[in-house]
Design brief:
Pfam family, one: Caa3_CtaG
Subcellular location: Cell membrane
Number of helices: 11
InterPro entries: Caa3_assmbl_CtaG-rel
Transmembrane segments: 12-32, 44-63, 83-101, 121-139, 151-172, 184-206, 226-249
Strand content: under 5%
Structural class: mainly alpha
Largest sheet: none
Number of domains: 1
Low-confidence stretches: 1-8, 270-275
Protein name: Membrane protein
Helix content: over 70%
Radius of gyration: 22 Å
Length: 275
């Protein structure tokens, strides 16, 4: 049975993951600085978001969180699968790459973004299934126990959690270019469905540990509560992004109507609602 995860000094896989995260953060900041040097506008808040996301990833793989073993594991899950992906997506890294790369690299990146596999993955229900479905598979099957017995499998699990969380956040926010930008309704429905499935999974963990584990009741309940409330906070932030986009789109639509009717003397169609 699994009683605890490994502690002590970070292993080689953790150090490698931290190095990749730091390398990505440095590359982003250098590219953003180069854009500004040539006179392009790139908000500093995006740099801060990417730097914060990088810091969360590095801390998650190098620092053992406080609490019991399963609580510490769940802290890493929320950090790498939810918080860091949201921060990285808010920084719009693909948009930065498209503006930074030379024409040849830009064409190759656009070809990847427009490919059929990316189009399938960028579908909100597919992204939600990969994200939350993977967690149900991890915690409600013997996979969690097997991963703790095989370090290479645990490394793959962590990689999937991060990649699936990054994909889901990117699709729900739709800040960077996608093969086909999903509508607000579809993205909202995917977020609500994934949030509900995530909450139900957290409640089942509160009552029943992953198969094959021997976790202390207090550790199990603390981890389940962290998963539940931590997930809620990130999902609220994702919903806020969608809401702001919907609000901005409405403002642009009203502005277009105003320009079309400026020379006719007729009020925009939306103005009649208050009459």
């Amino acid at each position: 049975m699994v009683h605890q995860h490994g502690g002590g000094q970070p292993g080689g896989a953790a150090l490698l993951a931290a190095a990749f995260a730091l390398g990505g953060g440095v590359a982003y900041l250098l590219a953003a600085a180069r854009l500004r040097r040539r006179g392009d506008r790139w908000p500093f808040v995006r740099d801060l978001c990417f730097a914060a996301g990088t810091a969360v990833l590095v801390a998650a793989v190098l620092v053992t969180p406080p609490g019991g073993p399963f609580t510490a594991h769940m802290t890493q899950h929320v950090a790498t699968g939810m918080v860091a992906p949201l921060l990285l997506v808010l920084a719009r890294p693909i948009t930065l790459a498209l503006r930074f790369l030379p024409s040849g690299g830009r064409r190759r990146l656009l070809a990847v973004l427009r490919s059929r596999p990316v189009g399938v993955l960028a579908n909100p229900p597919v992204a939600a299934l990969l994200d939350v479905g993977g967690l149900w598979l991890l915690y409600r099957t013997p996979l969690f126990t097997a991963a703790h017995e095989r370090p290479w499998l645990m490394a793959l699990v962590h990689l999937h959690v991060f990649a699936a969380g990054l994909l889901f956040s990117a699709v729900v926010c739709s800040l960077d270019p996608l093969p086909r930008r999903p509508g607000v309704v579809l993205r909202s429905a995917a977020l609500i469905g994934a949030g509900g499935a995530h909450a139900v999974l957290a409640k089942t963990l509160y009552a029943t540990p992953p198969p094959g584990t021997g976790l202390a009741p207090g550790d199990l309940s603390a981890a389940a509560e962290l998963m539940y409330y931590g997930g809620d906070l990130v999902e609220i932030a994702l919903a806020a992004v969608i809401g702001l986009q919907w609000y901005a789109a409405g403002g642009r639509r009203l502005a277009r109507e105003g320009r079309r009717t400026a020379g006719t003397g007729e009020p925009p169609a939306s103005a009649s609602y208050g009459q």
